[in-house]
Design a protein that fits this description.
The chain has one helix at residues 296-299, and strands spanning 23-28, 31-36, 41-47, 50-51, 69-70, 76-77, 81-84, 87-90, 101-102, 112-116, 120-127, 137-146, 149-158, 164-166, 169-170, 173-174, 185-187, 190-196, 203-208, 223-224, 231-237, 245-250, 256-261, 267-271, 285-290, 304-306, 312-320. By secondary structure, it is mainly β. The strands form seven sheets. The chain has a nine-stranded antiparallel β-sheet with strand order 10-11-12-13-27-23-22-17-20, with no helix packed on it. Strands 16-25-24-21-18-19 form a six-stranded antiparallel β-sheet, with no helix packed on it. Strands 1-2-3-4 form a four-stranded antiparallel β-sheet, with no helix packed on it. The radius of gyration is 20 Å and the shape is globular.
């Protein structure tokens, strides 16, 4: 008896998607955007052809966390260690130079495209239970363009049967227009800043932004960023009558970009994107609204505790000025 086999072309199973993930382009009016499925990352956002965030190419490994969706925690867990519900956990140290667990577990995952239209796309990932984070959490990120800009809605759902620690936030680098960070004016309505150690950025203390030691962090009144170095979390955010926080970055000529958000995001990390390579240095200003501050898994400060089958939702918007 002869066993028959059918030949399969080696190319038949090759994934031909771009290296940064499946590319989904969106368009509405003067706005265009592109999302990469690895990390559900915002590749670019433009208004009338002008970049509002620092972009990256589809056939490029996403530079660091540029545009990535951060979950189940934003920022750092110091030393990767935390205790939750009386149990000690050790996360992998994904920021080797400083020895921390950085920006969660979903930023380098392939997110599934679950819905799309000309102006909207929804991506979903399941963070499987693993060493250091023995919880199963589903996260859905929906991007939508309309006349008011790019809206991002994030929903987390605990698929397990015990509570899970959680936090989220985005990682866009905002671009006001021509020039670089030093040339732009920042308006940041935050009254407190979390000071950190200079070497490992470990949180030290929460301070008012108007003391002699911290006044260089005070951007409540719009002013030029200049050579100020920032890689800090802010809170005590001033909200408008609708409960909305708005951060604005503008050029001397008046062009700019705004980012705003509502409830559920009481913190914002701001980073001047200092890099040792001159052509990459201070290209954009990272503005990262967060559900919790750095090291919240350890401190418990504003930590979201996801109960089983109870969704948690937050949203933010980026728009041209």
């Amino acid at each position: 008896m002869t066993e028959s086999t059918s030949a399969v072309s080696p190319s038949a199973s090759v994934d031909r998607r771009p290296i940064s993930g499946r590319r989904v382009d969106l368009e509405h009016g003067a706005y265009t955007a592109s999302i990469a499925s690895v990390g559900a990352s915002l590749r670019f956002l433009r208004h009338d052809g002008r970049d509002l965030v620092v972009p990256f190419d589809a056939e490029e490994v996403r530079p660091a966390f540029r545009g990535a969706m951060l979950a189940p925690w934003p920022n750092r867990v110091v030393d990767g260690r935390y205790t939750f519900a009386g149990v000690d956990h050790q996360l992998a140290l994904t920021e080797p130079a400083r020895g921390h667990a950085l920006h969660g577990l979903a930023a380098w995952s392939e997110w599934e495209l679950v819905a799309s239209s000309a102006a909207s796309a929804a991506f979903r990932v399941v963070i499987e239970a693993q060493e250091g984070y023995p919880f199963r959490v589903q996260v859905t990120a929906t991007y939508t363009l309309d006349d008011d800009g790019l809206h991002t809605d994030v929903e987390a759902l605990n698929l397990g049967d015990v509570d899970a620690p959680y936090g989220t936030g985005p990682h866009p680098y905002l671009v006001a227009g021509e020039g670089r960070v030093d040339d732009w004016t920042l308006e940041l309505p935050a009254a407190e800043v979390l000071t950190v150690t200079p070497d490992r950025l470990i949180p030290v203390s929460l301070e008012p932004v108007d003391t002699e030691a911290t006044e260089h962090f005070d951007f409540r009144a719009p002013r030029t960023i200049g050579d100020t170095f920032i890689d800090h979390a802010y809170t005590a955010l001033d909200r408008d009558v609708d409960g909305r926080v708005t951060v604005r970055v503008t050029t001397p000529s008046g062009s700019g970009v705004a980012m705003h958000w509502g409830d559920g995001l009481p913190w914002v990390q701001v980073h001047t994107a200092d890099q040792p390579v001159a052509e990459l240095n201070r290209l954009g200003l990272a503005v990262e609204p967060m559900t919790c501050p750095p090291d919240a898994f350890s401190t418990g400060t504003d930590l979201v505790v996801l109960a089983p089958n109870t969704p948690h939702r937050v949203s933010w918007t980026i728009a041209a000025l």
